[in-house]
Design goal:
The complex is a heterodimer of chains A (about 270) and B (about 80). By secondary structure, chain A is α/β, with parallel strands linked by helices. Chain A is built from twelve helices and eight strands. In chain A, strands 3-4-2-5-1-6-7-8 form an eight-stranded mixed beta sheet, sandwiched between helices. In chain A, helix 1 packs across helix 11, helix 5 packs parallel to helix 6 and helix 9 packs parallel to helix 12. The radius of gyration of chain A is 18 Å and the shape is globular. The chains are: A alpha/beta (about 270), B alpha+beta (about 80). Chains A and B meet through helix 7 and helix 9 of A and helix 1 of B. The complex binds adenosine-5'-triphosphate and magnesium ion.
Chain lengths: ~270, ~80
């Protein structure tokens, strides 16, 4: 096995990075992949509660990096999927406890063992973000159809371009089709046109996401949830499957154009 | 447009973002773009006769690449010699 290391980032806080990591990881694990999620948000640990694993933490990321435990010991096995693991963030330390080369070393140790490593990046474009993108083979940028989130996503994309990383793909989260229809929310097409990167998924606003995090059970496990479906589709696209985008906006013609734009711009 | 003749907010969001992103990406503020335009007019006027009031300078984008587009109308074809 040689894992793909995928970092989920955003610039702006609260747009759905942690939600996306938990759900895409669960969706891949449901399909039989071996997945490790790393919570890169040191001091603001969250992925553990979203995945429902907060009671099982003994060691964390900084313990591994500082050699207080073996990598294996910090990998918490998921309750539902045997091949899904979480490496939690340290809660009582700050971001300076980890360096980009620490993250690269850790991921290199994981690569031969698993299929996917997901890194949940903290908000912002500082140290924690740098740590999270250092080992990434791919970066997925999460944004919401809203001015400040799109602007911050553009900054992050610009930084990734400057670092000569492979062009990131976009997850547009919390799209509200009714608002788009009444022209009071940026459409997927608008956001793609503004950011000019490839699209990997559109996730609707869905109250099941909140119910899921209340319970510590990501919505990807809920076959009826629309957001769950969207996250499962993202997982399939990561595996290289061609999955058509769900028509959330139900506007004839529009969706065809998005399908085409989703292929990424060559310019 | 809605009943009050206002643009729907999605349209405003898109137009505002288009401008903001150009400036974020290029580090070029609207004021700097203006002074660039003035200097361009000055330099070009030294060589040809142009209609300064009709000069347009814009940043266009195609995907993530951006280009400066200058539209500089020349006045009639009367030749003038430099110096
Ligand atoms: N598609 C969605 N529908 C409804 N609620 C959502 C959706 N996606 C995320 N949320 C909610 O938005 C909030 C923020 O999500 P999340 O914690 O994943 O963001 P984040 O980007 O990781 O934040 P931070 O920058 O603080 O790490 C959470 O309460 C989450 O349940
Ligand atoms: Mg988070």
């Amino acid at each position: 096995m040689t894992a793909q290391v995928i970092t989920i980032s955003s610039g702006k806080g609260g747009v759905g990075k942690t939600t996306a990591v938990a759900n895409i990881a669960v969706a891949l694990a449901m399909d039989g992949a071996k997945v490790v999620c790393i919570d890169g948000d040191i001091g603001l640990r969250n992925l553990d509660v979203v995945m429902g694993l907060e009671n099982r933490i003994v060691y964390d990321l900084v313990d591994v990096i500082e050699g207080r435990c073996k990598l294996r010991q910090a990998m918490i096995r998921d309750k539902h999927y045997n091949e899904l693991y979480l490496i939690p963030a340290a809660q009582t330390r700050d971001k300076s406890a980890v360096s980009p080369s620490d993250m690269t070393r850790l991921c290199n140790e994981l690569r031969p063992e698993v299929d996917y490593v997901f890194i949940d990046s903290p908000a912002g474009i500082e140290r924690g973000f740098r740590n999270a993108i250092a080992p990434a083979d791919r970066v997925l940028v999460v944004t919401n159809p809203e001015v400040s989130a799109v602007r911050d996503a553009d900054r992050v994309i610009g930084i990734l371009e400057a670092e000569e990383k492979r062009s990131p793909a976009l997850i547009l989260n919390r799209l509200n089709p009714a608002l788009v229809k009444q022209h009071d929310m940026l459409s997927a097409e608008d956001v793609l046109d503004l950011l000019g990167i490839q699209l990997i998924g559109i996730v609707p606003e869905d109250e099941n996401v909140i119910v899921g995090s209340n319970r510590g059970v990501p919505v990807a496990q809920d076959s009826k949830s629309r957001a769950g479906q969207a996250f499962r589709n993202i997982a399939k696209r990561l595996k290289g499957e061609e999955v058509p985008f769900i028509d959330l906006e139900k506007q004839p013609g529009l969706w065809d154009r998005i399908q085409k734009m989703a292929g990424g711009r060559k310019a | 447009m809605n009943w009050f003749g206002q643009k729907r907010s999605a349209q405003s969001a898109k137009e505002r973002l288009q401008l903001v992103l150009i400036h974020d990406r290029t580090d070029l503020t609207p004021a700097e773009l203006d002074s660039l335009k003035d200097e361009l007019i000055e330099v070009i006027s030294r060589h040809v006769d142009i209609d300064a009031s009709a000069v347009q300078i814009d940043v266009e984008h195609d995907g993530r690449s951006q280009r400066l587009i200058a539209d500089i109308p020349l006045r009639s074809v009367t030749r003038r010699r430099a110096g």
